Every structure is written in structure tokens, then in C-alpha cells.
Amino acid sequence: MFHARLFGETAKFRSRHFQPLRSPLDEVPIFGAQEELSSTYLDGRPDVDRPLTVQFCANDATELLQAATYVQPFCDAIDLNLGCPQGIAKKGNYGAFLQEDWDLVCKLISTLDKGLDVPVTAKIRILETKEKTLAYAKRILESGASILTVHGRQRDQKGHKTGLADWSVIRYLRDNLPPDTVLFANGNILRSDDIDRCLTATGADGVMSAEGNLYDPTIFADHPPESKDDRAYWQGRDGRGGYRMDFVFRRYLSIIYKYVLESQEPNRTPLFSPSTIVPHTDSDSDSSDCTLDEQPPTKRQKQEQKGKDARSEKCTEANLTAMQPHLFHLLRPLVSVHTEVRDALARSRAGDMAAFENVLTLTEEAVKQGLIEYKTNPEKYEESSVDQQPNNSTEIEDITDYESSLRAVQSCKRPWWVCQPYVRPLPQEAFAKGSMTLSKKEKKRLAKEEPNTVDSPSTKRMEPAIRLDQDIRDGLDKGEAASPAMVCG
Questions:
Q1: CA 20 to 30 Å from 332, out of 52, 71, 109, 361?
Q2: Catalytic residue from among 57, 75, 84, 412
Q3: Any catalytic annotation for residue 198?
């Protein structure tokens, strides 16, 4: 998602983050003939990147329209994000923090609807009641939105307080909006099986996924047929499986080489297949390129590398700068076991493909070791994937099976070499486990409202509070925090 004012005013920002042509977008593009679109480079490229919707956040209709005119020749729709709950959105007064100003929201949408040649869509969060959410949705649709995406969480549901999305509110909108309304649902999409469940429960026309797609890029991919290649898709004895991380990692690099770098990727040997395990040979021990015992650099090597980094020009290519955070999301379960992969990825810099190739090599060897270990002792992984119970389960016994994230963990958990979602604990569980505590401000407020519940979470929603340190302890990287230019909702 792009910040409309920065995108419209700053040519450098446009060129860095949106690359439909090989030349920078210094001016609003004007195409007199469709043939000229054949020169597209990456974003909006007809053969690989359509349909494409470009999303902006904004609080000024003129700035929003100016930004949208730069991208409309290369996309199929413009979306207004009205769902971002981050602190940066509150500070900048956009995203979900416009939901109290319905007149401004309607002005933003109607300005785009009248000034553009492509459809306008919008994404919102649910409000305090389903009736108020319905009224809000109607105003947005009446202003010119062609598609409405509804995130089934309220604005304060983020971080440790994310909780569950309420699909029943989306169903209420489906039943009470005009039948021809195109409605997308968002929230609680952790795995591919959740897509059909969501469509059935909400009656929506489509499903969006944000965080789930980051951790498992195969969430919208079909399962391979029974005669599958186990080099791509792994399946255990219990029938639980998923796409292998080394396979997806390779595919990711292949896309970078083909479309971004426009160069030939290195020759690769086939990935390890668990069905072709061979006895150990001396040649295996000589494979220094695949060893996991990577030695830490010496002080001199660090100084030399520091000098090289200082002399080298910093890479600002958006597709390359995004590689490291993308891979940290993808490899999250793996790097918690194989810290040498984590360390190698942390040292990788944007544009240094040799460094990422090294991370891929380490990942492939780690997956190979995991598959061999599973073949030897499958019970180890099957027991850790199901029937997990917390040590202090009695403290959260009042949480129903549906509400507890334990159920989600049990259904989504896979061995660490398989792509899988990240399941956050619910607020009640976070309180019970001690990973989340009330701030002094919240305790003071609760002491006035409910004297006996100062040390326990209220059934009412708490005021939003910044918990960066807790998010980091829970596994989030500082780099995952929203930036002023590109935020999420």
C-alpha cells in the first residue's frame, strides 16, 4: 500500500516502489494506443501481473486522485485502505482512523470514481456494532466503490490483541446489502482450507489474506495430485503436509532472476527427495558447500566486509530490499531450529544474490536433515504437531475450544520445514501465560470501572497501547513495523 501524498509528490518514491516501465514515472503517463503498454517492465505487466489493484492510503481527495492517475494505465482498479490500525496511521490520520469521518471517506471515494477510468474499491474494518458497520458500508458503496473488502476485526484488534475476526458481521452485511454488491472477506485465513470455510460462513464473493500469505505464500495454491513430487510437497504418515520451504525459496529466487534481474539463475541440482534416501558416503562429508557448520566470521573478515559495505552503493530496488523480510516470514519455523540459517539471512544485504544463494543452500541442507530425521523418527514430529496443551491450561479453562488459539495451532502446525502460518495467542491466553500485561493506564481505568478485575482482562475492549517490546518477544521483527510510506491494514 502506498502513501498517496508521497507517491504523488515524490518521483523518487514512485520509481522506487512502482515500476511499470523501465523509465521512471516522472510524469503522468498518457498512452494513445494499447500497443504502447507492451513496454511494461514489472508492475502491471499484462502477461504476469494482471489483474492488479493498487492500494493507497490518504486523507486528501486531491492528493489521492493525483497519485492514482500515475498508476491507472497499469492496473485494473484503485483501492482505498480504510483498515490500517497501526500507530503510524493514527499519527497521519488515515486508514482505520478515518472511520469516524464518513463525509471525508465518501469524498475520497467519489473523487476517484469521477476522476478515474478504472473502478474504485475500498477496504474497511468492522465498527462497534453490525448495524453501524452496515450503515458505514452503504455510504461507501453509494459513493462509488465497486468492491468492498471487510476485515472482520475492529480497529483496536492488533498485535497481542488481534483476536479472532468476526465472520458473522460480514454475513450480516452480505444479507443486508444489495444482492449485486461485490463483497470480499478478510481475517482468520491461516491456511487454504480456511478459504472455503470463510466463503461459506460469510457468503462473500472472494477472500483476501495478508499476514497468512506472507508466512505461507502457497496459501492460495492447489494441493498437488496424488502422484505428487515429494521434492515440492511433503506429506507425513498422518496425512498432514504442505509445500516444502526449500522448494518455495527456490521458486522465489527464480522469479527474482527472471523478472527483476532478467538474468539466468544458477544451475541447480534436484532437491532432496525423502523417497530416495541413500546410505551415507564419504562424498557426502566432503560437500562443504552444503554444510550447516558455518563458522562465524573473524574480526578481520568483519572489518573487511564493513569496508566493502561502506564502499558499495546502497540498493534501493524495492523487489530486492523486500527479499530479506519476505524470507524471514517464510522461514520463521525453520530458523528457530537452525539458527545458522537465521544468522546467514540476517547478514544478507539487498542486491547481494550470492548471500541469498548461500541462505538457500543452508536451507536446502536443513530441510534434507529434517526429512531424514523424520524418516528415522516420525513420532517426534507427529507428537509435537498435535495435542499440545499449555502447562497452565487450568488458567484458561474458561476459554472455549473455538476461541482458543490452541485449536488453530493443532490444525495448522507442521514440521518446521513445511510452509505454515503464524498463529498468535488470543488476548485471554496471552494474559494467562504472562506474555501480555495491562499498562498502568489500563489498570487505572479498570480500577475505576471494575475494582475486582485490575489484574485480569476486561470483557470490554481496552484502549490501544503500543507494545513493541512484547511483539518482538513474540517473534516479530522491528522491520515488520509499518513505515510512513508503506503500511498495512
A1: 52
A2: 84
A3: no
